[in-house]
């Protein structure tokens, strides 16, 4: 996907799990793009210090069972080099994010789930227009992978993020009086709530 080189981006509700190999690949990609990076590693955290055109940014990742979780919200990224690398690895690591792209006098809201864009909304002033929406957001492989998770401590934080995302989707649908989406979101929320109850037992 070409995000363009003269736009402004902001990442909301970003949640990505990296294995060590993918994390190293992202660091290498940033370096190859001309971005200065350093890092500090601790038993429970990994700090990636990224020197962008916006200044020094500290991406703090929680370490759990050999994986690294990057979870941040409201991160403006004016450095297109960093924006492109980050987007690529959100896709590669099957992460979640809401990406705001400022284009001239409007904002494009790109909703990403499992590394795929599932919805794009154009905002101009008080007006919102749905540009794209993927019919099926979750594949059978993703469902099976979720059911095979043995460590509920890893799943619960992601599940909470998915609940927040779907609640936001439901709110948007209520505002737009989109009955089909309201019904769909209600069903998804029921399933997510059922899974949360099982994991917290």
Instruction: Measure the end-to-end span.
Output: 41 Å
SSE order, as H and E? EHEEEEEHEEEEHHH
Mean pLDDT: 82
Q: Using DSSP, what is the number of strands? A: 10
Counting H and I runs of at least 4 residues, what is the number of helices?
5
- Low-pLDDT runs: 1-5
- C-alpha Rg, in Å? 18 Å
The amount of beta strand, in percent, is 35-45%
The major beta sheet can be summarized as: 10 strands, antiparallel
Helical proportion, percent range: 25-40%
Question: Could you describe the 3D structure shown?
Answer:
Strands 1, 2, 3, 4, 5, 6, 7, 8, 9 and 10 form a ten-stranded antiparallel β-sheet that branches. With 201 residues, this protein is an alpha+beta fold. Helix 1 runs antiparallel to helix 2 and helix 4 runs antiparallel to helix 5. It is 40% helix and 38% strand.
